[in-house]
Amino acid sequence: MSSNITIQKAIPEDAQGIGEVFYKTWLATYPNKEFGVTTEDVDFIFKDIKKADGSKYASLPDNTVYFTTKENGHVVGVCKLVKRDDINELKSIYVLPEYQGRGIGKMFWAEALKFFDSMNDTIVKVVTYNKDAIEFYKKLGFKDTGKIIYDETFRMQSGVIPPETEMVIPANNPAA
Ligand SMILES: CC(C)(COP(=O)(O)OP(=O)(O)OC[C@H]1O[C@@H](n2cnc3c(N)ncnc32)[C@H](O)[C@@H]1OP(=O)(O)O)[C@@H](O)C(=O)NCCC(=O)NCCS
Description:
By secondary structure, the protein is an alpha+beta fold. It has a single domain, classed as Aminopeptidase. The chain has four helices and seven strands, in the order βααβββαβαββ. It has helices at about 15-30, 40-45, 105-115, 130-140; strands spanning about 5-10, 65-70, 75-85, 85-95, 120-125, 145-150, 165-170. A seven-stranded mixed β-sheet has the order 1-2-3-4-5-7-6. The longest helix has 15 residues, at about 15-30. The chain is globular.
């Protein structure tokens, strides 16, 4: 890990950089002929990226946090975590392609472990054909539950919903 990568909670001024990380990383990750996801689908989702409103980062509910990693002030990775009463959810980790494989994902995971309640299960949903991310999550200790999810909010402009697989790290709960 190069030492000039920092990690911090997202602030409103990060909105543009976060949007660009999501957009570039989605373009590099999700278009897939077999599953019918196109680059146009991704372009459509991020068409208003320039108008990103960062105010939400200043008023997130207590159970939600966004972290960013930055190099020289530029956002190069983003992670969203949600902690509910009964479950921890790793909503997303996106690292710019040219920064992947340098330990940034693990930096986010270290923050997630501090934020989450270890007495609850931790889940992540991963697109089934995103094999690299599945391997990454396995490395962190997640196991595939076998559950496949079609999330309507993830429906593309073309009509396709990429299938997601659910992975879990069980609660560290001796009473369970
Ligand atoms: C998946 C992703 C978040 C991982 O972050 P990263 O910064 O590249 O991962 P790290 O460098 O921290 O790697 C952590 C560990 O996972 C392993 N790993 C990462 N990708 C892997 C892969 N494709 N296959 C096997 N192991 C992998 C690393 O070798 C490392 O292992 P180590 O602890 O033995 O050194 C990142 O590559 C990414 O943003 N990918 C595209 C977007 C995406 O798919 N996000 C997930 C959506 S749910």
